[in-house]
């Protein structure tokens, strides 16, 4: 069960983070980015966005349990002082008043939960950080999980091109429907998956980064399915948004390394947006995503999201090609 208070708090939190990230993208200077232990990049904006989401949620909902991507320990050492200052400045600007660095680190630290309780939030403050750094697509992804099931998903996609020519939308999935708030619109519009008559007319999307999803395997799968359209390569959970509103009808995330387990914040919000828009999301073996195993999807590998009708056929071909 999701309350209106929770839905509204989540929408407000994601919008606030999106405003912060839009202002920061393209203005990052040397020293505002670092490479984490797992070799992935992180910027001042990733940390600051996590802080403003926590501030917004806790201000409206009181204490929360959150599995967030960023860890304040990455900002703790003396040689990270300028990074810390950059994060604190971004948060202060977004909130409209000066905030102490210690407060900012405390907010980021709220994201340290292990994801093993009955009810928790999960946040990717900037999903697609490589896209963000390139000046391309990224998403702010926030979800609420209850008894291992996603019950609320909010995806902020500040650079996503909309059908009416505007740029940027926030997607909210809850209570049996998915809606989008395109930039500038006050009223939400309902979103639904595309339903191409045949698989040959389908378009699939995948990561820009071939290290995150095998482009070669995807090309082989598309060819066996008779898909002729070029892949729609787009960073982040914007891929789920694209499937949810029919810009594409299949999202393939195909393992590039044995043993890699997807992180829950990379999928929870997006997968629920697709499902509430009428689509189906599983792993590459056709199994449901299982959010009961902590910070990663330990029991799943890869992702396949579709408009639903062709899901079984897509899984069949994915399994053949990956075998
Ligand atoms: N080998 C790998 N396989 C799958 N996903 C990976 C990966 N290495 C990193 N990632 C994840 O891919 C995400 C970006 O996905 P995409 O390629 O769809 O934009 C990253 O999220 P962050 O950008 O939040 O760190 C990171 O968590
Ligand atoms: Mg991510």
From TrEMBL:
Q: What is this protein called?
A: 3'(2'), 5'-bisphosphate nucleotidase
What reaction(s) does this enzyme catalyze? 3'-phosphoadenylyl sulfate + H2O = adenosine 5'-phosphosulfate + phosphate; a myo-inositol phosphate + H2O = myo-inositol + phosphate; adenosine 2',5'-bisphosphate + H2O = AMP + phosphate; adenosine 3',5'-bisphosphate + H2O = AMP + phosphate
Which UniProt key words apply to this protein?
Hydrolase, Magnesium, Metal-binding
Cofactor(s) listed in the protein's UniProt record: Mg(2+)
Q: Name one GO biological process term.
A: sulfate assimilation
Question: Could you confirm whether the keyword Magnesium appears in this record?
Answer: yes
NCBIfam families referenced in this protein's UniProt entry, alphabetically: bisphos_HAL2
For this chain, the family text in UniProt reads: Belongs to the inositol monophosphatase superfamily.
- Return the Pfam families for the record: Inositol_P (PF00459)
Coiled-coil-forming residues are none
> Which SUPFAM superfamilies does this chain map to?
Carbohydrate phosphatase (SSF56655)
Residue numbers binding Mg(2+) = 69, 124, 126-127, 266
**UniProt keyword annotation of Metal-binding present:** yes
TM spans, by residue? none
Q: Name one GO molecular function term.
A: metal ion binding
Q: Which organism is it from?
A: Ilumatobacter fluminis
């Amino acid at each position: 069960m999701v309350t209106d208070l929770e839905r509204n708090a989540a929408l407000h939190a994601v919008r606030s983070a999106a405003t912060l990230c839009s202002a920061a993208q393209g203005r990052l200077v040397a020293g505002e980015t670092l490479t984490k232990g797992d070799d992935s990049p992180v910027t001042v904006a990733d940390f600051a966005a996590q802080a403003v989401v926590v501030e917004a949620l806790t201000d409206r909902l009181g204490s929360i349990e959150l599995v967030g991507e960023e860890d304040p320990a990455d900002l703790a050492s003396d040689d990270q002082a300028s990074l810390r200052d950059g994060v604190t400045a971004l948060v202060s600007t977004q909130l409209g008043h000066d905030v102490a660095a210690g407060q900012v680190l405390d907010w980021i630290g709220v994201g340290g939960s292990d994801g093993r309780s009955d009810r928790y939030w999960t946040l990717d403050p900037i999903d697609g950080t490589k896209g963000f750094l390139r000046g391309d697509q990224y998403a702010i992804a926030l979800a609420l999980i209850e008894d291992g099931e996603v019950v609320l998903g909010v995806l902020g996609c500040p650079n996503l091109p909309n059908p009416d020519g505007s740029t940027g939308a926030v997607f909210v999935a809850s209570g049996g429907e998915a809606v989008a708030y395109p930039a500038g619109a006050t009223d939400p519009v309902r979103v639904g998956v595309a339903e191409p008559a045949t698989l040959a007319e389908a378009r699939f999307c995948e990561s820009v980064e071939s290290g995150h999803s095998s482009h070669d395997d995807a090309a082989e799968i598309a060819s066996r399915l008779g898909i002729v359209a070029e892949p729609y390569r787009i960073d982040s959970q914007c891929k789920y948004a694209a499937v949810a509103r029919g810009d594409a009808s299949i999202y393939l995330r195909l393992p590039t390394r044995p043993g890699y387990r997807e992180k829950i914040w990379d999928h929870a919000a997006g997968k629920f947006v697709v499902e509430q828009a009428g689509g189906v999301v599983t792993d590459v073996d056709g199994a449901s995503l299982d959010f009961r195993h902590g910070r990663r999807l330990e029991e799943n590998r890869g992702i396949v999201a579709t408009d639903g009708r062709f899901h079984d056929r897509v899984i069949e071909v994915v399994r053949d090609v990956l075998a």
